[in-house]
Amino acid sequence: MMDFRPIFMTIGILLGTLAVGMSVPAAADAMAGNPDWQVFAVSAGVTLFIGIAMALSNRSGAGRKISTRQAFVMTTLSWIILTVFAALPFTFSELNLSYTDAFFEAMSGITTTGSTVITGLDSAPPGILLWRSLLQWLGGIGIIVMAIAVMPMLRVGGMQLFRVESSDLSEKALPRTAHIAGVIGAIYLALSSLTAAAYWAAGMSGFDAVAHAMTTIATGGFSTSDGSIGYFKSPMIDTIAIVGMIIGSLPFLLYFKTLQGDYKSLIRDSQVQWFIALVFALVVIVAGWLWLGQSYSPIRALRFSSFNVISILTGTGYATTDYNLWGGFVAPIFFFIMFVGGCAGSTTCGIKIFRFQVLYAAARTQIHQLLQPNGVFIPYYNRRPISDEVIVSVLSFFFLFGVTFAVLAIGLGMLGLDFLTAVSGAATAISNVGPALGSIIGPAGTFQSLPDAAKWLLSAGMLLGRLELFTLVLFSRAFWRG
Fold it and tell me: What would the pLDDT profile of 402-417 be if each residue is shown by its tens digit?
């Protein structure tokens, strides 16, 4: 039998942290004279009580070494249970959301997806706006820590390529990983603070600057306005958002190495090189289309292209305009780049750049082998040979990703959604992007009008995408047999 004590103790500690986080929007509502501060206070009290009870009743599990099976269960249960409690303020606030809508909004926040069911954000209470941003900010740092400490250990989708030095289940690895996670948390906080200061200097109010800084570095995309970043109509704010989204899309472990004195680590990393090259190519192509095909001025075309391409590619989901109106050439580009995402070890979503690199290296080696059957060819990633185990893991991930996307799209279609809404909705959920395509759930719409069953299905898709599909292993009978 699996020992659940260390699992529930960890979840209890995380619930306590979430409860402390609820005190921030409670204070914001109290200062604004909004009665919703009581909702946040009660929700925080309930969450804190249950969290402390879980931690204390399972404290005998403290210090025990966590097995791989326990890590699978702990990570999945953590995200689900945190979402259950994070939805409480949405449910009982003056927005009067159903629990389905509240759970969807909370899942979208904590997975940094950015899809929303809330309209009228411009007049929404400050506590709710701050809570949405805070959920994405907490989810962003959680994703980074998971990519550093958990994913390499579980060997999910080729993530074993990114094992921290001595990253295994031994006792020596845990202090090392905890130290790195602590430093990266400090970096994350510093970058968020700098982004907030930049937004404020560019003309945002202090509240908007803090809220948007949290969702920019977390590449989440929640905004304080229905018009998203486009509400501010400021080229300077657009530029700050672009820089912030790119910063959030690069491996935070490389920021750590830079602070250690390895100043060329970012430049030398092939994943970063591929990501920057892809961004540059896509921005130029879309800007050229807007200039030549849509009669935009060159500067305006470059501004809108760079912002919205980077927003979709990184899975942030901000928008400065309705890109559905840009014609048939841009829509397929945006649909396909939804799946790409940023770099491993960042706050971004999607398949990740490194998996495309591994797939390209393996395919290139296979072609060389076909042309020269007697030759010996070895695939490389970041100037290091790629093991067969990693290649198989990446290929398996691509297969599962495709199957999961198809199942989600078919399920949404069965619920009565039209083709574009079903397909792009499945894509944006599993890739944690936010807005999809079309008039219903595109950048100018919301997910509010979708049936409840579709919202639960999309919530499951967000969770699967955020946890890199490894949640599927829990449905295996062999897993529970040990």
Answer: 999 999 999 999 999 9
